[in-house]
Amino acid sequence: MKKVALLVYDDFSLREVADLMYLFRWSYEIQTVTFASSKKTVVSEEGIQVQPEKTFEEFHKEEYCCFIIPGGAELAYAFADEKLFQFLRSFKGEKDFPIGAICAGPLFLSMSGLLKGKKFVNSMGDDFNARFHGVEYENIVYAPVVCDGNIITALGEAPRRFAIAMARACGFSCRDEAMKELSDDYCPEDFMYKRDKEDLLCLENEILPWFEVEYQRIKGQEE
Known about the structure:
Elements: E1 3-7, H1 15-28, E2 32-36, E3 42-43, E4 49-50, E5 54-55, E6 64-69, H2 76-79, H3 82-89, E7 99-102, H4 106-112, H5 126-131, E8 145-148, E9 151-154, H6 159-169, H7 197-222
Helix pairs in contact: 1-6, 3-4
InterPro entries: Class_I_gatase-like, DJ-1/PfpI, Prot/Nucl_acid_deglycase
Pfam families: DJ-1_PfpI
Domain DJ-1/PfpI: 2-166
């Protein structure tokens, strides 16, 4: 099974890609592998420590369904990483492999030349985009998510829509309502999930027996 390749760097936003990782894991049984120029621990903008699992040299496109670039609170460290931009430039000419970037993440693509002639969006603001020479201002489309060929970009305020667009770019069927927030208009039955026959057998024969054993073990520690 292919996996999601996720770029991580100091001050990257974990929040912006959490919905995507959740959707791929629980809807398609696809896990995420973190990439960086080294395996040195990085700290997200939320303060979560992440140790990259692989370096760019270990990336093999055929093992992954997409590559994801989150935005971040501070980009200085990442922009100083020559290995990162060397790696991103290796995608030039790619037309089929999905590459997604959210919030400030599209700046990595702009500065690598991967957005040349592509429609895109970022969260840098119109004043910045109109003045920064690294951005092709005439190609910006201010919308929650913008898809142009294999490139998917999104505003930081649209992590759920970004996740759905990436799932579709990877060839998966995904409803617009996926991961939609719960409505205030609900009833208790909405949360009383019922399993089908096969899942119920698994519950009775595997899941519940394991939980019972663990419960007795933990309970015994109190006595």
